[in-house]
Amino acid sequence: QVQLVESGGGLVQAGGSLRLSCAASARTFGGIAWGWFRRAPGKEREFVALISRSGGSTHYADSVKGRFTISRDYAKNTVYLQMNSLKPEDTAVYYCGLGPRESTYSSEYDYWGQGTQVTVSS
Prior knowledge:
11 strands, mainly beta
């Protein structure tokens, strides 16, 4: 059983930056895709970013494109989400997911972290 532990959330002013981390408890194979999703109050979980199994390609939601960057460290079994130019509408609980294929659908991911709160004040 793989456990994912997220960290790095917090309170930041609009325009600021945060870096989220998601570490897997067990060795994951290279052929695993990682995704970041978020859930704002009163809304459904939505896709934010993913990184391919090879790590060679990434995909972002239009709302974060150009501001967020997803990356992975194979040696540390960790994926990161660098968030710059944060906006109040980015406020949400952010979740990382681990699955067998790249997908913007949360149902495609087998493992999830507990979530980390990101709050952006105006």
